[in-house]
Amino acid sequence: LRTLALSLAATAIGTAFRHLGFADSSIISLYILTALLTAVTTTGRICTIVSSVLSVVLYNFCFVTPLFSLASYDRSYLVTFGIMFATAMVAGELTARIADNARTSAENAFKTRVLLETNQLLQQAHSAEECARVAMNQLVKLLKLDVVFYPAEHGTLDKALYESAGTENRSASLLTDYERAVATWTYTNNKRAGASTRTLPEARCLYLAVRTGDKVFGVIGIALEGREIEAFEHSIVLSIVGECALALESDRAAQEREEAAVLAKNEQLRANLLRSIGHDLRTPLTAISGSAAILRKSDERLSLEQRCDLADAIYDDSLWLSIPWRTSSPSHASR
User: Angle at the Cα of 307 (from 306 to 313), degrees rounded to 5?
Assistant: First the structure.
């Protein structure tokens, strides 16, 4: 429709040129311009070819004697038609290539920007789930496809996360037992599997291990739905998955450092507690051992009252030690 509209518009303007006395070369240039505009505003080569054919036919029908007929009294117009058609085709082809290159460059720039944005967003994530969500959202933005993520916990895959590329929620068909089994195979073997691969190709998703070296932090699944990922897109996908793996590794390392710091602090508190308890125990134990030594060595030189006092002191101190929640000092210490 766009090609037809441009051709009719060129014919209308050419009719005005004819009434104004413009040369036929101006009308021919107008139709060549129409082929260029068609190549820029449409996709593919078919519209450009149709525009070139329409340009020759409409020029012959509307502006060559006899008017409103495809016949021509002057045989030289056949050469004009051939040159006009070839010029329109070549110009349209070159313009189409330029437009395709421009679209490809814009798409590549967008994909590269998505990758750079992924790195920045992952740096701002504060948990493993946030890192996974960032990677999933960026893959959805890049591919316009649904994405699932299976985080790895304690040697197995945990509950899957799901991100939809549209308004329809298809998690029921993507989070089946079979799909999870394929993801588990990817996690266990540290290799890709699923759609577009030779390993379990019946799966709806292409599963990639989120890994750094031999350490796998999870599995990402991309619902291809029969689509083939281009080479440049594939490299961007692998880069996003790699960035996610590095972020997850950093997050896990931070957790391990935090746990180590808490453990060291607990050990320090334990040591301090033991020192405090040891200090609190030495006072009554010293009194007990001293009183017992006096009773043992000086029993005959002590009066009955003195021996009873020493025995009472030993009894009070041992009683205080046997009840650890007592906060008061032993009774004999005050004496």
Answer: 90
DSSP assignment string, 102-118: HHHHHHHHHHHHHHHHH
CA 138 to chain centre: 5
pLDDT in tens, 267-293: 888 888 888 777 777 777 777 788 787
- Give the integer Cα–Cα distance in Å for 197 and 329: 77
- Residue 335's pLDDT band, with cuts at 50, 70 and 90, is very low
What rounded mean pLDDT belongs to the chain? Answer: 84
Beta bridge partners of 163: 147
C-alpha distance from residue 80 to each of 14, 49, 76 (Å): 17, 17, 7
d(CA 250, CA 243): 11
Q: Could you give the C-alpha distances from 208 to 3, 43, 147, 234, 247, in angstroms and in order? A: 44, 33, 11, 11, 16
Residue found by looking up tokens 């890709």 in the block: 192
C-alpha–C-alpha distance, residues 190 and 184, integer Å? 10
Tokens linked to 71: 């016949």
CA gap 212, 158 in Å, rounded:
19
Strand-pair category, 205-212 with 193-194: antiparallel
- For the record, the structure tokens of 290 come out as 């001293």
Residues making up the chain, counted from first to last: 335
The yes-or-no verdict on residue 142 having pLDDT over 80 is yes
Q: What DSSP letter does each residue of 241-288 carry, written as one string?
A: HHHHHHHHHHHHHHHHHHHHHHHHHHHHHHHHHHHHHHHHHHHHHHHH
